[in-house]
């Protein structure tokens, strides 16, 4: 019989690891006196999250390559075409829900580069 508490344990572990990552990166956030406007910061946030989504999608692809398809309920050209899109959506969803911390590092580096260009 499967342990039905496993998803809750995994979720709590994920939240705890995300909290640790936030604590580590909290000192990297831009200061209130940043030279960048809100629109630029929003674009930077979107770019950083998109970068993390693409990274996660690429890391997830090998997990799905070895899965055999049940020919009765799947397979064919449709599944071949849309399986990459599904993995891409998994990556976007993971990045939108906290990801693994790559977006915050990319965001901070983009902010540093933009503020350096303003000088």
Low-pLDDT runs: 1-6, 23-31
Distance between the termini: 63 Å
Annotation field: number of helices: 4
Q: Tell how many strands the DSSP assignment holds.
A: 0
How many domains make up the 3D coordinates? 1
**Fraction of residues in β-strands:** under 5%
Q: How does the overall form come out from the CA principal axes?
A: elongated
What Rg do the Cα atoms give? 19 Å
One letter per element, helices H and strands E, the order comes to HHHH
Helical content (DSSP H or I, runs of 4+): over 70%
Mean pLDDT, all residues: 77
**Largest sheet descriptor:** none
Structural class computed from helices and strand pairing: mainly alpha
Task: Explain this structure.
The chain is mainly alpha-helical and 119 residues long. Helix 2 packs across helix 3. The model is unreliable at 1-6 and 23-31 (pLDDT under 50). The protein has one domain (6-118). The longest helix is centred in the middle third of the chain and has 28 residues, at 38-65. The chain has four helices and no strands.
